[in-house]
Write a structure and sequence with these properties.
The protein has 534 residues and is of the alpha+beta class. 12% of the residues lie in helices and 27% in strands. It is built from 3 helices and 34 strands. Strands 21, 22, 23, 24, 25 and 26 form a 6-stranded mixed beta sheet that branches. A 4-stranded antiparallel beta sheet has the order 3-4-6-7, with no helix packed on it. The two termini are 16 Å apart. The N terminus and C terminus are likely disordered.
């Protein structure tokens, strides 16, 4: 715990051996049933020996459940480093693309290959559905978020890799090309974005927030690994961008407001997690491509590679130049930062007036404008199981039977005799104490005349044995359910809570992040990775 940082971390330290340890999968969070679902991913050790099973971690009961194999007419393409998003409002999880490898799919013997597979999972029905991708091009290592627009919400996808020729070669998916999926009609749209377009990247993480009136939807992008062409001056990014819809404008907000400067110690494969009504975003975990940067993972005690930013700028004011800040559990709403409303119009509470792209809607996107103007409501979901609650306080032990009259008389008589004995002993000891005190007083007078004024009062000699300050209880001992989290698993049957908090920033101001403007060319670093585990 550092400077009052009080966000507990749930540490899953042991697990059933049948639960695979994977990387590159996704965790879908269901805040209604208090579960995480693990979808996809590549085995960290070994290869799969069975078809894919959907596993779920039960938070209240601290156990893993096996939800079985997805029931599909054709085998599931189990991949790693696809794009996934879980939606508690609708009770659904989505997963698009990714790499099929020997470590992700049982029986795969070929070289790794990207896929265009797109799946939807229903939390309440435990059903997996194959749905249409935007096209037939395989994609991987992009990012996807959900926004509450359209009829049942919309999915927004961008970045990563694409195989445009169908021969296994890869190319960057440019970040000025935004793909939007409408679950209610199974339609895809493509829209061109403008502004300060982020450099091509993969394995970046994203989170979405929106104005109170939903006049703008703002998608926050952090980090990622660079994808040539073009060749850039870093192998991993440490920058923050915001894509605002429906204006479809990219805005860079860190480490500067324009240009390609990036924080000197960039990393990728993190997860971005919105909390407290989307007012703050946790950036958790990730990989540093430079081994010498690995010690930057855990700058704060018990923070474990977690950083926190305020989506409405530091302090949730909407007008602060800084975004990185200590976690604040008291924020209950989010606001629009002035970096956004200076472009879209309105203020920190909404009221955007720029409601279409600067260059117009891409053809044939006439329906997208209508969808983004809709503001659906979502019926509250109910748990499909009994959610354990805090157990009630134990009943007090039964009262003993009343004492008899004889017993009471005996107790009173015995107590009186004991009291007399105690008084007599105290009188004898009191005389002895007074006699020893007088002897010590005479001794101190003699010593004082020998040592002069060098004696020190015992009351001032405390040092290591003196009283110590007592630490008070945590100010905010409770946590809330979090959305998508890092997909590298370390399961458990025993849970411990440690009071770490996702921020590596000092109290009293924004961290002075070093800015990298001159990097070694990609590939000049040793080919080993330093991985931060959240």
């Amino acid at each position: 715990m550092r400077n009052g940082e009080l966000w507990p971390n749930l540490n899953i330290t042991t697990k059933d051996p049948k639960i695979p340890t994977v990387h590159g999968g996704v965790l879908w969070g269901d805040s209604v049933n208090k579960r995480f679902f693990v979808f996809g991913g590549e085995y960290t050790v070994g290869v799969p020996t069975d078809d894919f099973h959907l596993f779920s971690y039960d938070i209240p009961l601290d156990k893993w459940d096996d939800f079985g194999k997805p029931q599909l007419s054709s085998p599931l393409n189990t991949t790693s480093y696809g794009a996934g998003v879980g939606i508690s409002e609708t009770g659904q999880g989505y997963y698009y693309g990714g790499w099929i490898t020997k470590g992700s799919m049982r029986g795969w013997t070929q070289d790794k290959a990207m896929t265009s597979s797109f799946y939807r999972y229903g939390y309440d029905s435990n059903t997996t559905t194959v749905i249409n991708p935007p096209d037939t091009l395989p994609r991987a290592e992009g990012a996807m978020v959900w926004i509450p627009a359209g009829d049942t919400g919309l999915l927004v996808y961008f970045g990563g890799l694409v195989s445009p020729y169908g021969n296994g070669t890869t190319a960057p998916q440019p970040l000025d090309t935004i793909l939007i999926y409408d679950p209610s009609t199974n339609d895809w749209f493509t829209q061109t974005a403008t502004g300060d377009i982020p450099q091509n990247r993969r394995q970046h993480c994203v989170g979405a927030a929106w104005a109170a009136d939903r006049s703008s939807y703002n998608i926050y992008l952090w980090g990622g690994a660079s994808v040539p062409p073009p060749v850039v001056n870093t192998s991993a990014f440490g920058d923050l961008h915001i894509l605002t819809l429906p204006a479809f404008v990219w805005v860079k907000v860190f480490p500067d407001r324009h240009g390609n400067a990036t924080y000197a110690h960039g990393h990728y494969a993190s997860s971005c997690n919105m909390v407290r009504s989307n007012s703050q975003m946790f950036v958790i975990g990730g990989t540093y491509p430079n081994p010498e940067d690995s010690n930057l993972c855990d700058l704060a005690q018990h923070a474990w590679a977690q950083h926190n930013l305020c989506t409405g700028t530091k302090g949730n004011t909407g007008t602060n130049d800084a975004y990185w800040d200590l976690f604040n559990p008291n924020f209950t709403t989010n606001v629009v930062p002035d970096d956004i409303y200076n472009i879209t119009g309105g203020d920190k509470n909404g009221g955007a007036t720029v409601l279409s792209p600067k260059l117009g809607w891409d053809v044939p996107n006439s329906g997208l404008e209508t969808l983004l103007a809709r503001k659906p409501t979502f019926a509250a979901r109910s748990p499909t199981r009994l959610i354990p609650t805090q157990t009630s306080s134990p009943l007090p032990p039964p009262s003993p039977p009343p004492l008899s009259t004889g017993a009471i008389v005996g107790i009173v008589t015995g107590s009186a005799v004991s009291l007399c004995i105690i008084i007599f002993v105290c009188c004898i000891r009191g005389r002895s104490v007074r006699r020893r005190r007088e002897e010590r007083r005479r001794s101190r007078v003699t010593q004082a005349s020998w040592y002069g004024s060098t004696m020190v009062s015992p009351e001032s000699v405390q040092g290591e044995w003196g009283p110590r300050p007592v630490a008070g209880p945590p100010l905010h001992p409770h946590t809330q359910f979090m959305g998508p989290a890092p997909a590298e698993l370390a399961g458990q049957t025993a849970v411990s809570i440690s009071p770490g908090v996702p921020s590596e920033l000092p109290v009293g101001g924004e961290y002075e992040w070093p800015v990298r403007t001159d990097h070694p060319a990609p590939g000049s670093h040793p080919p080993r990775h330093a991985v931060c585990h959240s």
